[in-house]
Amino acid sequence: MRTALLGVLLLTAACRRPSTQFASMLTPANQVNITDYSQQLKAGDDLLALGNNPAWSLTINSSKNFLRFKGQNGDSLTTPAPERQPDSDGVFRYSTGTESNRINIVFRPDSCVDKLSGQRYDYRVEVDFRGKNYVGCGASLRQLALLSDIWVLTDLQGTPIVAGGPRKEAPRLEISLSEGRVTGTTGCNRLNGTIKADTRQILFGPLATTRMACDSNVAQLERKFLNQLTNPLTYRIGESQLTFLSKGKSVMIFKKVD
């Protein structure tokens, strides 16, 4: 009898002890079609473009200082990356090579859909090379690359977030798009999971969190924070600030950790 009673007491104590294991799982509420740029981000690529009929591709990588173009009938060029030439209305250009081997490239901001894959891009791209004209779609990965950083929540659905009191720290996200991983904290529990993002959208999850007991106000903030992360979001980055939006409205604002 004493052994049975001791077992019940131990079980009860175990149930009350906060778990430090990643046990609570949250999966995205809705799946969206997000292009995987992880390999290009690992390589440090800045700009990508491609087209069909004929098939061609373009990669510009300023960190490794190269421009690589592959066109039809073996037409190809690999050269040091030329200086970007900004134009009006967000248009920019590149031009390099000798007179007989010159390549001229124009990126124009516009919604562009690749007919073969159905993938949407942010630029229409034209390439003139060796007397041939190539037209297709392109993407700039510069803004996307800025997502990979540590971000602290400063505003949730219009409510300023200040660390202190029962909430010793504000919710935080550490994003690594090249690895497709996100870690951080809800302000009480640790989180860990997967992340996908392209030049417009971001999708978290599945996410796992620890199950530490939280103050009621902190627990309420945690629920709201995690609920937002289960939905597909769009984003904006500027001046060390990251804003997540849902249906065009800001739902979370983060600041970059210096």
TrEMBL record:
Transmembrane segments: none annotated. Pfam families: META (PF03724). Residues 149-254 form the DUF306 domain. PANTHER family: DUF306 DOMAIN-CONTAINING PROTEIN (PTHR35535:SF2), HEAT SHOCK PROTEIN HSLJ (PTHR35535). This is DUF306 domain-containing protein. It comes from Spirosoma radiotolerans.
